[in-house]
Amino acid sequence: MKSAITILAVCGSMTVLAQNTDIDVNMNMGGMGIDMNVNMNETYTETQTTTTTTTTSAGGGETAPNHYVMPGYNGKIGCPWPMSENQFSDALRSVSSKSFDDEKATVAKQITGSNCLTVEQAKRMMMEISFDSAKLEYAKFAYDKTYDIGNYYKLNDAFDFSSSVDELNDYINGK
Question: Is 137 exposed, middle or buried (0-12, 13-18, 19+ CB in 10 A)?
Answer without folding.
Answer: middle
